[in-house]
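Bench log. Compound arrived from synthesis this morning; before running ITC I wanted a structural hypothesis for how alpha-D-glucopyranuronic acid sits in the protein. Inputs:
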Amino acid sequence: MNRKFALLFASMLLPFFAAAQDATSEKYVGTSKEALPYPQIINVSARTPISLDGWWKVIPDQYESGYYNYRLVPFATKQTYFADLSFSKDRTRLVEYDFDMADSLMVPGDWNTQKEKFYYYEGTIWYRKKFDYSPKQGRRVFLYFGGANYETIVGVNGRKIGKHTGGFTPFNFEITGIVKDGENSVIAKVDNRRRPEGVPTINTDWWNYGGITRNVYIIETPETFIRDYAVQLKKGTDNVISGWVQLDGGQPAQDIVIEIADLRRKHKVRTDENGFATFEFKAAPELWSPENPRLYEVSVSCETDSIKDSIGFRTVEVSGAKILINGKETYLKGVSIHEEKPFSPSGRACGEQDAELILGWAKEMGCNFVRLAHYPHNEAMVRTAERMGIMVWSEIPVYWTIHWTDPGTYSNARNQLEEMITRDKNRANVIIWSVANETPRNPERLDFLKRLISRAKEMDGTRLVAAAMEKTYLDKTTVTVNDELIPYSDVVSFNEYLGWYDGMPDKCRTVKWTFDFEKPVIITEFGAGAKSGLHGDRNERFTEEHQAWLYEEQIKMFSTIPGLSGTTPWILKDFRSPKRPLRGIQDDFNRKGLVSSEGQKKAAFHVMQSWYGSMDD
Ligand code: GCU
């Protein structure tokens, strides 16, 4: 091709490149490719959300015929189920799906425990919800999901909007100008297949609950609104409140007022051309603590928007082998919890009622701390715990054998970490971010976790960052934790199953713990299985007597562990797992719960309760 023609040809292409550039720069607006979610809007419950919870029409699509052609090439959107065609409207047209004729599932909720036919289902289920809406002048509209497991592609009114990956963190899409006056429809393709490169990967000791497992809202905001903010005590002080505000919209530079009426503080600051401003001001708040979970109404307002939040102020730090809350040495009297409903048929928990019940059991056991394993739980769980004076360990599902060298796996894990911290960074009760659980020690894993830890500290330097590590025998009776991750972790937290996976309970009497670090120690898992109501000799596995004996032996051993500053026994309640098939005893449940899947407290519950009760606060 001669040079002149080449230049002419290239100039003809320019507008397309420019357009392509525009399309990719508008990465948040629905495109033919799956766009990214819009940056997370926080504290959505304060924006009088329009709930889309309730019955949604569903179409199971194990072979994803609603998305790919027979060569597994993605269809154009109008040929996918996002088109929401009708079988009956034109019987000359070949249509092989119809949401109006389909089954329904409740949202929020996993599909596994709603319908027998979905108990083991792993694949795609399409959801559709119709809703009436009338766009308001000058208001922006967002579609917000509290969470959906695992990969979700969303369409509104026949247009594909974007995709989110990760089963336990919120995501939202802007749908301004896509929602119309009158009836609208949102369609979500939710695929819970486990992926080797996923986060988590394909092997987990919990049920792979699929579906829209959390709330779905329509959020309306002014054209320029307060999308995100951080308000908490400045690190190292208990009398300076600091933070930042991020506006979103066409008027980024505005006067901001942060007001805490009960502290008679009203602080003004102005956002820059990116809509961002930091602030700090003196104040002497009554500190949040488990004994006094004091929350303040904090109002953040700008010229075009305002929002209120309930925020507590406290300090958390480590000093040698101690954890200090508001400067006071505090033992974390905890318990681990999976996000499951308190009673049969179990399934994914969501909302305040589930949270109050589950956390009520923890409170009854004497807990001031819960390890929300192994993934971020729903926002109501964290906020309810905050109101109840229960501190939280919050964790991303970097679990067991993650693909450490896969860049996509890392960005997925990092994204879930960012979404977790973005949502909960203003919750005073969250004191520890955890980046992993029981991961194999190798250089790639160390690099992966070090990068996550530094990202967590970059986003939020005020909280402790940790991971659940594992014990190591130095010889037949000497145990330690010498994980390469320890220098990067604020506490040394680890799981140990002495007396269950490692000998019988009396083995706890034979070991000597030794550490060569001066950091607080948290035992993030110990425990044994028991079927509620099964009684017998304490040597008999899965009897309540055996489990109680294990707890008695563990508690005796705790007094020999240097720097022990917290315990979160595994686990508060029996939970469903595909790895627990023992018929008549497990029946697809991991029976290490201190409470059964029917809500009965086992003997070991009371062993733990009396030990925590014997501690002075
Ligand atoms: C591991 C793991 C848990 C699991 C537990 C068990 O420590 O972290 O997710 O459920 O052991 O085997 O019960």
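What the model suggests: The pocket of alpha-D-glucopyranuronic acid is lined by residues 205, 374, 437-438, 495, 525, 570, 590, 592 (CB under 6 Å). The chain has three domains: 3-222, 225-317, 330-472+480-497+518-614.
ITC booked for Thursday regardless.
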